[in-house]
Design brief:
Length: 405
């Protein structure tokens, strides 16, 4: 079903009302809801936070538009609360971390397959293998600290295996910048994909930077510090895909259509009727925001929003297991490394690369991602199966491999 964003005006901003009970809904179930419901919740929390952050920056740079920005931003604040508060209280920080990495793997893989610009697709594929490795490292930490199987969160949709080694992902900023798309020629899906992945990675960086200090275990604290730093690199990488020549209002238009696009995709594929109703409501709210900005774009810049926006929404993210695609990228691209904005085989990276010196410096006393997974061997299954293996092991029939403390 296509959505004509010019004809569909949604709910007017002045009619978008919340009260406190409306903001705090019954959360999803950690075990009973489909894992992709949680993926959608985490993704849309990131999308909302990116929009909120962008509008604050715009507000600080433009006095004339402060009031409309404040009005739309208040609605974004309340939507973000509704979405983020859907995560359940019985989901530990580490379990939520596993879910964040599942978002990174599955969403990035889907975006890459929707991307029409070969260079942007290559950037997405490159980042995919790094988040894939982060999932493996955090799965080892979950086993080490909580004795839990990551598959309880992943629900067999996503593999747990090493990717591009985390210890090799540390780069000098020179090697994190990418070529930006041309805002006059790039397809709308390229612009939407760039904003979507920036939002997802920025939220991941912010989450890890916030929760990493709750652990007493020194390796856990160091692992969050290590991967949070790489997520900052990812935000830099994906953010540099965006053309800096776009005007502030043009960027605001793109943020709003990105929200419509992602809520619409969530609505189409949601399996929980109660959560689906939230996505449907917020599609209508975001259409209202989009038309506010379209009107400002016409009046302030004297430009037609059709210069920037697609007539109908492009094909949305596919919320399903991308296992086969990820495995193929892992097999063919794990040895790619960047030199500036380009990607080459690691054998072609010169010894004088600033990233070599950077890695040597940050890893001089070891890499937490290597320490946490030493002795770890993931076996697909669940905690119930694991208990059965342990019992068999007690009878001399073998047991599951574990992280050694």
């Amino acid at each position: 079903m296509a959505l004509d964003i010019f004809k569909e005006t949604g709910v007017p901003l002045e009619k978008q009302e919340f009260d406190w009970r409306d903001l705090v809904r019954e959360p999803i179930s950690k075990l009973d809801d489909d894992a992709f419901t949680r993926v959608r919740v985490i993704l849309m929390n990131g999308i909302e936070n990116e929009s909120w952050t962008f509008q604050h920056q715009f507000h600080r740079m433009n006095e004339a538009l402060r009031l409309p920005l404040a009005r739309v931003r208040r609605a974004e604040q309340h939507q973000q609360t509704v979405v983020n508060w859907l995560l359940p209280a019985d989901q530990s920080v580490l379990e939520t971390t596993i879910a964040y990495e599942q978002v990174a793997v599955e969403v990035t893989a889907s975006l890459a397959q929707n991307e029409v610009d070969p260079y942007v697709k290559q950037v997405l594929d490159f980042g995919l293998l790094e988040d894939f490795d982060h999932l493996y490292r955090y799965s080892a930490l979950l086993d080490r600290l909580e004795g839990k199987d990551a598959n309880n969160i992943l629900q067999s949709y996503t593999d747990v295996a090493p990717g591009r080694p985390t210890k090799e992902e540390h780069r000098d900023p020179f090697d994190d910048l990418r070529e930006h798309y041309d805002h006059k020629r790039a397809a709308p899906i390229t612009k939407i994909n760039a904003l979507t992945i920036v939002a997802a990675e920025q939220q991941t960086r912010n989450y890890y930077a916030t929760v990493g200090n709750v652990y007493a275990d020194p390796i856990a604290r160091q692992l969050y510090a290590e991967i949070s730093s790489i997520e900052e690199q990812h935000v830099t990488q994906y953010g540099s895909l965006i053309d800096p020549r776009e005007t502030w209002l043009e960027k605001w238009l793109l943020h709003e259509v990105t929200e419509v696009y992602n809520y619409f995709g969530c609505m189409q594929q949601e399996t929980n009727p109660r959560i689906k109703a939230i996505w449907e409501r917020f599609v209508q709210y975001e259409l209202g925001h989009l038309h506010v900005v379209m009107d400002l774009f016409r009046r302030v810049e004297n430009r037609d929003p059709a210069e920037v926006l697609p007539a109908t929404l492009p094909e949305t993210i596919s919320f399903k297991s991308q296992r086969d695609y990820v495995r193929n990228i892992l097999e063919t691209q794990v040895d790619l490394r960047p030199i500036g904005t380009q990607f080459v085989d690691k054998s072609q990276v010169p010894s004088s690369s600033p990233s070599h010196a950077y890695r040597a410096r940050v890893n001089r006393e070891g890499s937490p991602s290597e320490l946490v997974s030493a002795g770890y061997r993931y076996i697909p299954g669940t905690e119930l199966l694991d208990r059965a293996r342990v019992l068999r092991g007690a009878n001399g029939h073998g047991s599951r491999g574990r992280v050694q403390a």
